Amino acid sequence: MAYQLFSFILLIPCLLGIGHVVSLKFGTLYPGISSKIVLGIVATSLVWTVLSFFIPLNIYVEISTLLLGYASLYLNKMWKEGWNFLKNQNILFYFTLFLVCLFSSFYPFILDHFGYYVPSINWISKIGLVKGIGNLDLILGQMSIWHIFQAGFSHISDLYLRINGLVLLVYIFYIFEKKSWTHMVFLPFLFLFIQSPSPDLPVLAFSLLLLNEFLDKNKNATLIFALSIWVFSIKPTVIWLPLFAFFYGFFILKSHFKFILPGTFILILFLVKNLYCFGYPIFPIDFLDLNFSWKPNSEIMKTSAKVAVEKTFDMQFSFQEIQKFTFTEKIKNWLFLEGIKSKIHLLFMLSLVLFTLFTIKQKKKIMWILYICILIKTIFVLAFSAQYRFFLELYFVIFYLLFQNTISKKTSTVIMGLCSVFIFLILSFPKIIQTQIPSFKLGYFLTGFEKDQLLHPVYFELKNYQTFSLGNLTFHVSKDYPYNFDTPVPSISTAYIQEYYDAGIFPQLNGNGLKSGFVWKKLNREEMMHLNQILLHIKKP
Length: 541
Description:
By secondary structure, the chain is mainly alpha-helical. It has helices spanning 2-26, 33-52, 59-75, 78-87, 91-104, 112-126, 145-152, 163-178, 187-190, 200-215, 221-234, 240-252, 261-277, 298-312, 319-324, 327-335, 340-362, 365-384, 392-403, 409-428, 431-436, 494-503, 525-539; strands spanning 465-470, 473-478, 505-509, 518-522. The relative contact order is 0.11. A two-stranded antiparallel sheet has the order 1-2. 60% of the residues lie in helices and 4% in strands.
C-alpha cells in the first residue's frame, strides 16, 4: 500500500501537467483537474502507441515523459490547482483513496493477467510493437493501447502493474468534482479490476464518465467523440459509445463534421496497430483480408472462432453440439446454463427490458439514440460471442440511467461502504466465495490478504521455463504452468504449441531479430517429428 501511494503521487502530477498542455489545444470536457488528467492519459497512450512501432517503451521513455509532465506542471503552476482540489476535500474522499490503495495491493487473480496482459506489457517494454506477433501467440495480436500505456510506466512509476488503480483515482476525482454521487455505488465492483492492468476498468470508468457528460449536455463534441473512440480502441466491444458520441454530435449538438477529425485519427491509429500486429483491422475477427504475409494461419483462426462459440455457452457444450442447436435452443441454453452464468444472462435480459420501458417513458431523443446504440452493440455481441464480459459495461450504464436521480449521496455512500467491506472479505477470505458460489471459477484463484500488502502490492513469481528451437526460432515455454507471465520473450504457451502441431505449422522469424516480426511456416515431416518431441518433453511430469 505504501508503494502504491508513492506510485499515485508520482504519476498524477505528471499526467496533470501533460493534460494541461493538451487542453491548450483542444480545451477540456469540464472544469477540474480530473479532466486534464484524463487528457494526459489519452495523449500519453497515443504518443507511446506511435513510438512503440519503432522503439521499446523502456526506462528512457518513462523518465522523459515524467520530466516533461513535471516541467509542464511547474511552468504552468498546475500544482496549485491540484493542491487546492485536495485541501478542499472531506474525510469521505480520503477514505475512498485509502480503499483504492488497499484493493490495489491484492494478488492479481484474473487469468488474462498471466496469459495476455503481462506478456503484452513485456513485449512492448522490451521490444515494442512487433509485426505479426499474433503468429507467435494469437492473443498477443491484440496489443491493447491500455497495455502500451501500462508498459511505459512499468520501470519506475508502476513496477507492480497497478495502473488501473490510477484510473480509479481519476474516476473518484471526477465524482467529487461533479458531485455525481450515484457513481459511488460502482466503486466496490471496480475494486475487483485494479489488481491487474485489465482493459475492463478503464472502459467501465471512462464509459460512465462520458455517459454523465452526455446527460449533462456537454458541448465539446470534438473531445467527446475523440475520447469515445479512444475507449473503443481499448476494447472494441464498447462499440455503442463511439456510435452514440457520433450521433450526439450530429443530432443533439448539431456540430460541424470537423468534430470527428481527432477521433478519426485515433481510429486510424488503432486500425493500423491491429493490421501491424494481427494482420486484420479488428481482433480477433478475420474480415477485410488485405492478404498481408504476416496474417495468422486460417486453421488457427478457425480454432479461435470455435472456442469463442464454446465460451458463449461457458464451455458446457462442444462446438459440434452447438452447431446442431436450433435458434430457440441456443437462446434457451444460453439463458439457462448451469451455475452463476445463467443468473448473469437472465439479469442482462431483465436489464434490457427495464431499459426499454425506461426509454419509452422518457420520450427524449437522446435516450432513444442511446437505446438504439446499445441495441446495436447487444446484437453484435450476441451474434459473435455472447460472453458476459463483453457486455459488462451495459449493466453499469443501464443501472446508472435508471437510478441516477433517485439515489442520494448518503445512500450511495452507505452502499459503497457496505459493498466494499463485502468485497474485502471475499478477497481476504476466498473460501467464502469458493464454497458459496462454486460455479464462479475466478473464485478459486483468490489467495487472501498478506501482511506484505502494507508495503507493496503482492505478486506471483515463477521464473521456471524451458527453451527450445525449431527452424529459425528459439523460444521459451513456462514449465508446469500454462501461461508465460514472467517467461522471457519470445515465449509460447503450451496450448498454442499443440494447436500449431495440429495445424502442421509453426511461427518463424520474418528476418533478423525479434523486431523483424513473425510469420507462420508449414512444417515438413522431420519438423513435425521434432515438434512432437518438444510437446512430449513439455508435457512430461
